[in-house]
């Protein structure tokens, strides 16, 4: 009898449609903000050849400016998930342990499992494990809690650390400030899809000062996605080059801070809910005081998020995305405050 591999059988995947939004309910499952700017594409020309495995040279150069690194230290990937997969592939062999936060973006544990790695979870909130022989994954701002970890949070010395900065806005100098503190054993993975509102483009990047790692990741990528979609790369480059993009991203960052405060205040006024003290990013992680099902309680109040178990968390938690129009945030705050 033909059977699937244990790794394939063990994969768990969710989509937003698994948690439908009914009439009259508010959708706080994911980012619902509009695209930053029109991005006309030259589709025919872009699809005429494979392109460089490492990515479009102009896009690599622009990202190098944002991160304060050399263009040769940037590898363009098919979204943040491919960057994470390549990073894990390059630093750990099958059977090796890897520290993964929990709760967290579900792809961390699923991709580690597909690569045959042994997941050793660490709790968030809580101290980040000190870097050492076991590779470490850190997400900051953390999805789903919005908590922030500084580069020094993993300690100094040797030991691989993968930093997922996908929820850090490129609007300011935060990316450069972060990467200037990183060492040769640090790897950054980043998703342009989220912050630039180009989810369909599937463009991300892997950044490392270790050029041997960049070369190894490029070789592996040759046998995976080959080259990242050129139309997607050129769309990302057009958005990043648009002089209005930085201003709009700065405005969105300010609006997110106000919306985070609005929802956090509503949760604070609620009799049944609490939230982890989010500092950045687009998410809040909300808990019920009595341990009851948080997703169900909010869904019944007309606010739909993503249940905690999706992030390997508890049913008593739910993730809410604050990247919503202001009227949705106001309505959600009113409904949450009444709980």
TrEMBL record:
InterPro entries: Aminotransferase_I/II_large, AspAT/PAT-like, PyrdxlP-dep_Trfase, PyrdxlP-dep_Trfase_major. CDD domains: AAT_like (cd00609). One of its GO terms (biological process) is amino acid metabolic process. Its EC number is 2.6.1.1. One of its GO terms (molecular function) is pyridoxal phosphate binding. Pfam families: Aminotran_1_2. Residues 41-336 form the Aminotransferase class I/classII large domain. Its cofactor is pyridoxal 5'-phosphate. Keywords: Aminotransferase, Pyridoxal phosphate, Transferase. Belongs to the class-I pyridoxal-phosphate-dependent aminotransferase family. This is Aspartate aminotransferase.
């Amino acid at each position: 009898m033909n059977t699937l591999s244990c790794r394939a059988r063990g994969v768990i995947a969710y989509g937003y449609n698994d948690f439908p939004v009914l009439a009259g309910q508010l959708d706080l499952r994911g980012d619902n903000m509009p695209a930053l700017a029109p991005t006309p594409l030259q589709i025919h020309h872009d699809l005429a050849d494979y392109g460089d495995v490492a990515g479009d040279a102009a896009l690599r150069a622009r990202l190098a400016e944002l991160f304060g690194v050399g263009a040769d230290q940037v590898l363009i990937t098919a979204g943040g998930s491919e960057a994470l997969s390549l990073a894990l592939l390059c630093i750990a062999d099958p059977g090796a342990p890897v520290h993964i936060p929990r709760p967290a973006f579900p792809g961390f544990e699923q991709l580690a499992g597909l690569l045959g790695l042994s997941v050793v979870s660490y709790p968030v909130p809580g101290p980040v494990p000190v870097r050492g022989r076991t590779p470490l994954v850190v997400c900051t701002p953390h999805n789903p809690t919005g908590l922030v970890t500084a580069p020094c949070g993993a300690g100094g010395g040797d030991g691989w650390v993968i930093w997922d900065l996908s929820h850090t806005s490129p609007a300011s100098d935060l990316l450069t400030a972060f990467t200037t503190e990183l060492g040769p054993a640090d790897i950054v993975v980043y998703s342009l899809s989220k912050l630039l509102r180009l989810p369909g483009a599937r463009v991300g990047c892997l950044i490392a000062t270790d050029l041997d790692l960049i070369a190894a990741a490029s070789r592996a990528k040759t046998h995976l996605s080959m080259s990242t979609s050129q139309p997607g790369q050129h769309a990302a480059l057009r958005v990043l080059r648009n002089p209005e993009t930085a201003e709009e991203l700065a405005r969105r960052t300010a609006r997110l801070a106000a919306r985070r405060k609005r929802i956090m205040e509503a949760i604070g006024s609620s009799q049944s809910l609490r939230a982890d003290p989010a500092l950045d990013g687009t998410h809040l992680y909300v808990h019920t005081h009595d341990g009851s099902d948080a997703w169900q309680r909010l869904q019944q109040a007309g606010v739909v998020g993503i249940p905690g178990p999706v992030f390997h968390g508890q049913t008593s938690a739910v993730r809410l995305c604050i990247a919503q129009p202001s009227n949705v945030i106001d309505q959600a705050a009113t409904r949450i405050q009444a709980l």
